[in-house]
Structures are given as C-alpha cells and as structure tokens.
Recover the amino acids of this structure.
C-alpha cells in the first residue's frame, strides 16, 4: 500500500524537477534561435514595438506549434488521438480552450517579448505567476490567503524590485520588457484557474496537446498576419538553424508541460508548482552559461529572493521535514 | 461519440458503490477495449489523478487471491456534481 503511494510520490517529485529544468532549457533554446538569421537581423529591419511583437510571435508561435506536433506524436503513439475530439466536446474541455488562449498567445507571447527586451531578467519576474495564482484563487475561488502565503508574496515583490533596481546598460526597452513579463505571469495564473477547471476530469496529456496546437495556430495564422509578420515567418521556416533550435525548444516545452501536469496530479498542485518554479533558476543559469547573459548582483540576488518567495507561497517548508508518510 | 477515457472512469464510478481498476476496465472494455490507450497503467493513472483532483476517494484495499494489491475507489460529492453537470445522462451506467 505505502509502497505504491511512495512510488507515485517519487514519480511526482521527479516529474516536477524535470518540468522546471525543461522550462529553463526551452527558454534558453528560444533565445538561441533568436541569435540566428533571419530572426537576428529582423530587429534592425523591423524596428520598434511592432518589430519586437513580430519577432516574439514568430518564435513563440513556432515553438508552441512544434510542441503541439511533438505532443500529437506522443498521443498517437499512446493511442489517445481520439481523446482530443472527445475532450473538446465536453464543457470542461471547452473552458480549458479559454485557458489555452490566455496562457498561449497572450502570456507566452508576452513572456518572449519580455525576454527579447529585458533578457534573462524577465525569467524570475514571470515566475511570479505563482503569486498571481494565489491572488486569483483568493478573488475567484474565495480561498483565504494564509500568513505564510502572504509573506511569500511580499518576498516575491521584494525580489522583483531588486531585479529592477539597476537597469542593464544599453537596454532601451528594459522596463517595458519587465512589464511584459508581468503580463505573462498574470496570464499563466489565469490559465491555471481555467486549466484546473478542465483537467479535473480530463486527461491532462490530451489537454496540453490541444493547448500547444491551438496556441501555435493562433500565433502563426491569426496574430502574425494581423501584425504583418508572415514574411519573417516564411524566411524563418526556410532556414535550418533557428528551426532546429525551435524544434528542440518545442520538445523541451512539451516535456516540461507533461511533467508539470503529471507532478500536479500526483503530489498536488502546491508542490508541483514550487518544483516547476525552479525554471527561473535554471533559465537564468543557462542564459549565463550559454548566451552571455552578464552576471550582475541584482539578477542573482533578485532571482534567489523570488524563487524563495514563490516556494513559500506554494509550500510550507516545515512540512518537508515533518511529513514523513501519508 | 464516446466520453474521454478519464471522464468515462468517473462516470462509471457514479453508478457503482466502489470499484478497483480491474473492475473499471472490465466494465469499459466493450467500448474502449480495442484502443491502444486501454492499459492498466493508464487506468491506474486515471483513478489516481481523479483522486488527486478530489473527484474520487480511496475507499478500501485488499489483496486478491494472487496476493496482488487491489485498491477500491468510490466517487465523492464533488465527483458526482461534476458528472451531473457535464456528462449527458445518456452515458450513465445502469
């Protein structure tokens, strides 16, 4: 009895850690893809905010679309492709579509926009989605905010202020980038509320598949044509290095989401989220290691403060030591 | 169209006092048995996820005649409300 449950818990914890690691890798690989032509040169050809938007949606859309393709292959392989249509026929499946739209085209688009403007500084800011998640639970689900969560939220805010304290040199849109990272955090928190509604009685592996496909299709075939970005999409599709990196980032995003949901449904949302949030640490670390993100005291200290605050929001540290067995 | 598999598990538990994974699979076999997703691991995942999401409870457990652990699950009030709200009555097991 306890053996089966212990094994499930172990799987859940491992999945949670992998989800954080993979989200850090996804973030880094998308940024690497942006270092190659035609994405690299596009910033000069398409200046201003609309240029940044087009760039963000080409990268975000291709990443999500590829993640959707990887997940479709996975679900075909495990015999669950029919589940996509079945899930969408039920009301909770339809509600999760709303969540997909808020979390995908809006939040993930804003995340990449934030990354392109503020670099790795955007990562820990976006991790504050946990804070907003707790906030929306209070407003929408009328859940009380207990003192521990309240303190964790304040710590997150302090961390965000620390990160913003010193602007990196030569970054003109830094503050705007941080604002977009905030929008991402709010969007993901709302997605969580909608997703919780849908995933209670549906297979989350199927819901993520729908989410990534829908997000990619809306980004690429609805938003990009409106922004006038189909030219850049076309030239990006034809060049191997950025597509290669985005295929890889899509795979990491797919694995990350699979593991996150797996973790949430085996060890509970609170623990799952706090393990997932370590992506802020991994993301900043990989950016420093692989793409010359300068190490500054504010990014290091701010990231650590936000991660600690986020963990405190989602998990009682004392339980880690006292709760031996359930 | 069939229900999504996880919803079908919940819907089945609505009509019985409790059931273990083998009983659930036996009941759903006529409709889902020929699909590749119809595996014991997948169905254990379904019931445990439903439990984690507060739709069903573990009601009892014992060892079968081969000494293999059986875990019996029963639907709770939240699970019943969800089925009442979202699953068409035509899917209900008698």
């Amino acid at each position: 009895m306890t053996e089966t449950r212990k094994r499930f818990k172990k799987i859940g914890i491992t999945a949670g850690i992998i989800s954080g690691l993979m989200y850090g890798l996804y973030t880094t690989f998308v940024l690497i893809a942006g270092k190659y032509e035609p994405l690299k040169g596009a910033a000069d050809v398409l200046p201003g905010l609309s240029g940044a938007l087009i760039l963000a949606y080409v990268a975000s859309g291709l990443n999500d679309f590829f993640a959707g393709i990887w997940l479709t292959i996975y679900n075909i392989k495990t015999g669950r492709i029919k589940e996509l249509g079945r899930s969408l026929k039920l009301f909770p499946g339809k509600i999760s579509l709303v969540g997909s739209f808020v979390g995908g085209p809006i939040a993930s688009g804003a995340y990449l926009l934030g990354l392109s403007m503020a670099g790795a500084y955007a990562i820990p800011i976006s991790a504050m989605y946990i804070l907003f998640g707790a906030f929306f639970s209070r407003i929408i689900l009328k859940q009380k905010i207990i003192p521990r969560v309240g303190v964790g939220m304040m710590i997150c805010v302090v961390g965000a202020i620390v990160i913003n304290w010193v602007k990196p040199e030569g970054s003109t849109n830094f503050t705007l980038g941080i604002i977009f990272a905030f929008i991402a955090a709010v969007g993901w928190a709302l997605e969580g509320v909608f997703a919780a509604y849908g995933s209670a009685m549906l297979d989350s592996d199927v819901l993520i598949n729908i989410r990534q496909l829908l997000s990619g299709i809306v980004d690429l075939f609805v938003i990009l044509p409106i922004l006038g970005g189909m030219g850049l999409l076309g030239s990006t599709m034809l060049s191997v290095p950025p597509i290669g990196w985005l295929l890889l980032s899509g795979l990491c995003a797919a694995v990350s989401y699979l593991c996150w949901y797996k973790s949430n449904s085996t060890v509970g949302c609170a623990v799952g989220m706090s393990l997932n949030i370590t992506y802020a640490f991994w993301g900043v670390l990989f950016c420093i290691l692989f793409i010359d993100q300068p190490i500054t005291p504010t990014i290091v200290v701010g990231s650590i403060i936000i991660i600690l605050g986020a963990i405190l929001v989602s998990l009682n540290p004392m339980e880690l030591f006292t709760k031996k067995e359930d | 169209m069939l229900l999504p598999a996880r919803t079908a598990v919940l819907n089945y538990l609505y009509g019985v006092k409790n059931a273990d994974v083998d009983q659930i699979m036996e009941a759903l076999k006529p409709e889902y048995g020929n699909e590749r997703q119809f595996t014991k691991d997948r169905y254990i995942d379904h019931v445990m996820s439903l439990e984690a999401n507060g739709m069903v409870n573990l009601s009892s457990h014992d060892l079968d005649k081969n000494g293999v652990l059986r875990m019996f699950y029963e639907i709770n009030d939240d699970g019943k409300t969800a089925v009442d709200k979202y699953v068409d009555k035509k899917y209900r097991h008698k």
Remarks:
- The two ends of chain B are 19 Å apart (CA to CA).
